[in-house]
Amino acid sequence: MGRMIPLRYPGKWSIFRLDDRMLLILMGIIVGTCSGLAAVALSRSLVILLEWTHPYRHYWWALFLPASGAMLSSLFMNNIVKEGAGHGVPEVIYSVSRYGGLLRFRSSFSRLISSCLTIGSGGSAGPEAPVVMSGAAIGSNIATFFSLNERQRITLVGCGAAGAISSIFNAPIAGMVFTVEVILGEWTALNIIPIAISSVAGTEISRLLQGNNIVFDHREFDIGFPDTLASFGLAVLCAFTAVLLTHALRGMPHHSARLPLPIWVRAAIGGAVVGVIGSFFPVVLGEGYHSIQEMIDGVYDPGFILVAVGMLAKVAATSFTLGWGGSGGIFAPALVIGSLAGLTFHRGLAFVWPSVAWVNEGCFALLGMAGLISGMLQAPLTAVFLIIEITGDYGVILPLIIVSTISSSVCQYIEPASFYLKELVDKGQLLRPGTDGRVLSDLSIQELLEKDCISVTPDMLLRDFIEIVKRSRRNHFPVEDSESGHYLGMVHLDDIRPYLFNPGMYDAVVLEQIMDRDVEVVYLDEDLTDVLQLMDEKHLFSLPVISNKRFAGMISKATLLDRYRQELRVQTCR
Amino acid sequence: MEARLLHIFRNTPLGRETLMQSIHFCKQVGATPVIYIPAFIKFLMYFENDVVQVDLDASYLVSPETAIDHVSGLMAEHGLEAGFLAPKNFTASTLPDIPSDFDFMSCPRSISDLSSKIGLGYIGPRVRRIVRSASFPVLLTSPVYKPWTSIAVFFGGSVNAFKALNLGLRIQRKTGMPLHLFTRTEGKHPRVYREAIRERRLEKALRQCGAEWHFWERGVVEENLYDVPHDALVLLGAFGHGLIRDFVFGSTMEKVQSVISNNLLIVGPAYSAGR
What we know:
By secondary structure, chain A is mainly α.
């Protein structure tokens, strides 16, 4: 028994005691392997499910397949594992921001199953975000099992996300960059090494089990100056499409919530709509990688109008799938919509300037994918590396950078927060390390209380009060009811100044006559952000803190600044 | 600073009994009850090293329109003012985060199962997780309101047992109630336990509060527990021996809770005694 305990405390092993980098690298390998396996499991399950349903796709009732998948997915999420629908990435970011990366164990498998049901039946969603959630939860729970500290746990959450993305796309650099750019929001020497190792482990697992395949292989593109110039226009189109998709995805749940129906029925309705759209535009069904390959190869048949309408149909199908209760991510739909946008733009260019020797339309499909991803996630580096790795083509790097950065900037101008972060930013819950919000959220009023105030009672004579003032180092004196102990108000030294040089008043004035009952107060459970705002608005330097009607202490800007600096140093490792 | 007790209110007669236990506890130890009336069927509690999702039994959401009145009425009856908890943070739109920085939490033996399951010998999985992870002690209330008039601490010499004893002494000082110490000697001489107390310098505190120490040197646990006053608040440590020993030999907490119907104040391994 005595030997079992240290196994769960690897941080105490002599090999790791001096420096935890080796420990994190070891854990990164474990987490990357597990999250890679989770990604492969989902990927293989999807293939099996799609192959299984494929023979039935031509039947009329096949349009109800997405409805049944979304319904089962919703029932599974709400009634069996009791989690909300959605892709889970904001939940991972929220957990990293607020709770040191703590994630539930059930999250390590729940979205794998639910998204498999949704996507495998034809729902318009992607498997990438669910595997990110799953990988992050695996990392978090491994950290919890081994009793790692908060900083180490956050690193392992990042390892899980990186391993999952690396494995599902066979793209280790994209996995790393996505994690630091989107999930963690910080790049430090301490976390990047285990995350890189985890990405390698996740990729190796994928290559071992599925082969070393480039996701979207294609022939070389001959990019000329007009194409590079045109990529500015494509970036703007992608940005507007990304904003449209973001709005559709965010607005749809409000519409569906208006229906007084159980969640699983709403999910089924959303799925049925997708089925109907899919019967006209098959490109909207499932993750859509097959269609992307066709577009990159330049063999996608539909004409300009149908491609443009198909793009809008995919936006609608994705919103109906995810906004009405289905489960899955937006990565794959964004890739499909982006490639459709690229195709639309290319065909438009070819129509307007037919004499220009444009590059093959597959190149614009590829650039469109980068534009949509960078616009939605406002993560241009992720988009650049992802597209390079999943297409295996470095030749497109210049227009790729242009499309990614411009699309991301335009989106940021229209929507300051990305799709993943918007809800958190709106609620004030995005607390990246070292930011004002994060530092304040990690401090509590309780930690800042100054308890050296001497309480007085309202019936106290001025003479007795002056004796108290003599032995106090503070200017504020809380007045409490002598029987109940409830806080009544404050006496400030300035309040007694008129009587100080008139000893005749010492036995004539009681504190009740001079106390201030209208002093601003704050409560023990209030957020420090609110307290600071109140101090700023009213130009106050200190405030009494009340708990259950009693005086708990004072909070002052001076103490706050001291603790703020200490906390900031801890968070930024300085 | 006043201690705060978290109470998850169930708007049913059983919930009323539990709330009355919480009120009695708060009045005795001078704690402030903080009541959460669930608006959603589930909530999360983030602890230092674990996150627990509590999926409530559906009866917690019964008649929300009367819940506040019921709580306020009961509290006023006992001279307390109701303080309600409104979750500020949400992990998902229907998944509020309930703070875990309280000094005590009160709940029946199960909060996720139907109330018909609640009885001796059963502690729900969520309550177990909370006890295991919480830095506060958990008050497991008896099924019906049972005001306690003495304190009984089960002391077996483990780290958690010392935490429970320290907490028992604090409550004794606060309430002035008689304190009983119960030790099952497990084949050791009582002197061993007295020595352990002496080493921790608790002998004087026990003497000052007039604690009575009872040693059970023979007999089965069920029989021994008959000596515990029926109206005592029982304090004991839980999950202090590790998973394997608890699994093989059974946990003391499990045995105790399956035999006695007293209010139990359980001190888990993550309880920080300084609170």
